[in-house]
Amino acid sequence: MLKRLLIKNYALIDELDISPAKGLNILTGETGAGKSIILGALSLILGQRAESKYFYNQAQKCVIEGFFQIEEYNLGDFFQEEDLDYEPETILRREISADGKSRAFVNDTPVTLSTLKALGERLIDIHSQHATLEINTEDFQLMTLDSVGENGSLLKTYQETFRKYRQVTQALHDLIEESKQAQSEADYHQFLYDELAAAKLNGDEQEALEQEQNQLSHAEEIKRALLAANFLLSEQEQPVINSLKEAGLQIQQAERYVSNLHELSERLQSALIEIKDIAEEVERTEQHILFDEGRLTEVNERLSLLYQLQQKHHVSSVAELLAIQKDLENKLIKLSSNDEEIAKLKAESDALREASEKLAEELRANRQKAIPLVQKAVIEVLSEVGMPNSVLSIELDSSTLRLSGADTVRFLFTANKGQVPQPLNKVASGGELSRLMLAIKSLIAKSSALPTIIFDEIDTGISGEVALKVGNVMEEMAKHMQVIAITHLPQIASKGNAHYKVYKAEAGEVTRSNMRKLSDEERVVEVAQMLSGSNPGEAALKHASELLKHR
Fold this sequence. Notes:
Keywords: ATP-binding, Coiled coil, DNA damage, DNA repair, Nucleotide-binding. By secondary structure, this protein is an alpha/beta fold. Among the domains are: 1-123 and 451-517, P-loop containing nucleotide triphosphate hydrolases (Rossmann fold, 3-Layer(aba) Sandwich), CATH 3.40.50; 183-334, no CATH class; 519-551, no CATH class. It has helices spanning 35-44, 76-81, 113-120, 138-148, 152-198, 205-217, 219-235, 240-255, 261-288, 293-312, 318-384, 424-427, 430-445, 464-477, 490-493, 520-532, 538-550, and strands at residues 2-10, 13-18, 24-28, 62-69, 89-96, 102-106, 109-111, 124-128, 391-402, 405-414, 422-423, 452-456, 483-486, 498-507, 510-517.
């Protein structure tokens, strides 16, 4: 329920702080006093777009805040889906700056207007004589049957099952399409894989092959250079090794007379050993260097294959070719497993469809049982509010599975004796639709947790005893929910648990709209004025007092 509404700087309202009571709240006031302004402000926190021209003071921002008690509305899932903090007392706030920029908040968390609107629709239902299109919608008509049939738990179970069915069916469809696509590419993927597998790739081979190719291609040049080096070191007329040996002997001779030459002698001996080792390694290497034309051909062919595969797959290394080979292998494995997964999803989809159909049948049975209850209860209320010849006929037909079940519904209506009931949008006037909606919502209120409902002058065109009956219906509704009624009829105004008067007040050059809660004595005067005018006589005051006593 709406616990508090705070309006700052909107239209003719400077600042207004309203705390509606439980039950039936009555709003009265002269035409143009500002009742529609209050509804306009309220609509801003329900997601309606705003214009800065509605500001009381163009230099300041407009702020609308609504405080709602929401424990009974089962909104936990909504808050979770929208990633919002759930609070038993939830605050909706709208701020509009002078340049027209708007911000919306739920419990101080910024939200989009669409989120604010979606939540607002679950908290407040504004119902006017000209806003009865909802009653023509199939969603509302099914909701009516489900409320009376107490299908809340069953409908939730069905919707969870049906959503899962749709998810699995979509997954099945996607997998089948993916499998078809993969199947069409399977032969090509198999060819590519076989080609790579036949190559028996090794991640390190390319570098080694390129080095071997380089060596084989220059074998004669390498052999000639190594022979020349070996000749200089150990085979020429005065080889380097013999010269070093002779140099060592000479230093040893001098060492007998110069003691510090011993270190030089040892260093030269070490160098001689190293040079001998180098000479032997050069000779061994030279002997192993062979010009093998057959091996060079093999290496060239292998490298050519690697280069061709890399060019074909637009990569530059064997490691990348191996990654592609692995990916192709996975695709081929997945293709073989797709049939198993498709069969598994098909079985799951069939089972969920069967479960959905069974739950839908239960829903249909409950809805069928609710139809005579709804028809009877609505006709009884309509008889009370001045439409004794009304007929409401509800038709329920089978349909395909959807989120609301497997039913289509039509409310057929006539307010006149002897006429065949027709779809609501063809036969009901605005006033008739308003009273029909009042009758239906009064019925739903007894079986469901409805949001706060605001009746905006739906009593237009009625008076006397009918108005009193409409007031009785609202009073009955208010036992189950918070009702706010804007009215010009004293019979309805007298039914309220709380009565608020909307009025204009002038402060200097400025006119402001305001609102205040009336005391018991002030209510008598207000109702009397509604009965007889601005200066009610004794009879009007007495009549007003009698009306309020009945409350």
